[in-house]
């Protein structure tokens, strides 16, 4: 299908939200009994696998397992959304990788069980980390999420002479060219004002660290460019890369560093690598187009569990298989930093967060789907389409 047809469909086709015929204890909006009110959480925590989800269970601040709601369509391994008794905070575990994340989040946002129009979404998981930027145990907050695997790929053993990677943008002829073919999920930008507020809350936390993590990060001190990787964990603003493939090694790390910078027009800082965020953000963006969520209420928090490349003289395979480099403190720091963010939102709800945090930056995807002009990529395809067709008439 050509891009013009896609745009035409988006602009002129009405979208009907279809609710499946659900049997059992869960009912559709039309079938709910009189007096039913959907759950309207102030904060919705999004975890990806068991350890991340369990970071929130049994904590002293609130009981996230007070309510357990079975939601059709979410992961069969994690079939329930968990909420506090007052519905202020909910949490779900999506399952790992992009398909699971998109499927679970889509099922939730279109469920009649929830009203998410004023909800803040806290993506809270672990990630690999670039030692040029940060270290294991650190807590990162992203402005950009970049789908780095959405490119052409040549097996590195067959890459053209002089190239340091087999990855290069779709529709281009080299790793330095901007992609000429876009799918729409390459880059998302979230609310920078909200990110800075979340960082200020998280900075009040005392982060966890372990002797094993300290010993491991010290191995990176001998490489000058890896100096940040040898430092103690901190709260840091830097960006995240999404790929279903679990990458490791300096060549792939440098390739994704280049992709992050290229796709964001030099604004993004490749820091963490994970498998879900662009999928989660696309599901939330589509819900935002019909007013079911507000895209400016998303926080991307990733704690660093392992390095994305080896230290000097370590083999790539050993780096990959030694996956518990900083897992323990990274899981603990999801809670330690995340609870400060949640409490900040809850305590400031009436006088600040209920009305929303106004974004001073562009917020949305690379297409400009929610309006505005992206400060990365080629610019809004919708604005460009409107300009062209106001002059030339509609062409399909």
UniProtKB/TrEMBL annotation:
Nucleoside permease that transports adenosine and guanosine. GO terms for biological process: transmembrane transport. InterPro entries: Pur_nuclsid_perm (IPR009486). GO terms for cellular component: endoplasmic reticulum. This is Purine nucleoside permease. Residues 1-18 form the signal peptide. The keyword Transcription does not apply. Belongs to the NUP family. PANTHER family: PURINE NUCLEOSIDE PERMEASE C285.05-RELATED (PTHR38643). Pfam families: NUP (PF06516). Keywords: Signal, Transport.
């Amino acid at each position: 299908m050509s891009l013009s047809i896609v745009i035409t469909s988006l602009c002129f086709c009405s979208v009907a939200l279809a609710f499946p015929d659900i049997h059992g204890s869960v009912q559709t909006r039309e079938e709910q009994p009189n007096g039913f009110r959907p759950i309207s959480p102030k904060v919705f925590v999004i975890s990806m696998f068991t350890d991340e989800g369990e970071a929130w269970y049994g904590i002293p601040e609130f009981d996230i397992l007070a309510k357990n709601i079975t939601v059709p369509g979410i992961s069969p391994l994690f079939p329930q959304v968990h909420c506090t008794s007052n519905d202020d905070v909910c949490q779900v575990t999506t399952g790992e990788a992009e398909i699971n994340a998109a499927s679970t989040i889509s099922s939730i946002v279109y469920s009649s069980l929830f009203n998410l129009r004023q909800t803040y979404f806290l993506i809270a998981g672990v990630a690999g980390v670039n030692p040029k930027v940060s270290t294991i145990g650190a807590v990162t907050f992203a402005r950009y999420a970049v789908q780095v695997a959405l490119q052409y790929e040549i097996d590195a053993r067959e890459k053209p002479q002089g190239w340091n990677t087999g990855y290069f943008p779709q529709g281009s002829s080299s790793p330095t060219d901007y992609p000429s073919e876009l799918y729409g999920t390459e880059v998302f930008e979230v609310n920078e004002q909200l990110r800075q507020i979340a960082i200020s809350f998280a900075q009040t936390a005392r982060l966890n660290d372990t002797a094993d993590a300290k010993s491991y990060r010290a191995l990176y001190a001998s490489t000058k460019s890896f100096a940040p990787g040898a430092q103690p964990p901190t709260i840091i603003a830097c960006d995240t890369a999404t790929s279903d493939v679990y990458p490791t090694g300096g060549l792939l790390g440098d390739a994704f560093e280049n992709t992050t910078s290229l796709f964001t027009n030099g604004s993004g800082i490749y820091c963490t690598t994970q498998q879900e965020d662009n999928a989660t953000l696309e599901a939330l963006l589509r819900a935002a187009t019909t007013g079911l969520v507000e895209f400016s209420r998303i926080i991307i928090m990733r704690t660093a569990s392992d390095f994305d490349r080896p230290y000097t003289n370590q083999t790539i395979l050993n780096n990959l298989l030694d996956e518990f480099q900083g897992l323990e403190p990274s899981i603990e720091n999801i809670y330690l930093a995340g609870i400060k963010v949640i409490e900040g939102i809850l305590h400031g709800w009436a006088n600040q967060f209920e009305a929303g945090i106004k974004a001073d930056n562009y917020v949305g995807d690379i297409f400009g789907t929610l309006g505005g002009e992206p400060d990365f990529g080629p610019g809004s395809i919708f604005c460009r389409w409107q300009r062209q067709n106001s002059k030339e008439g509609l062409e399909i």
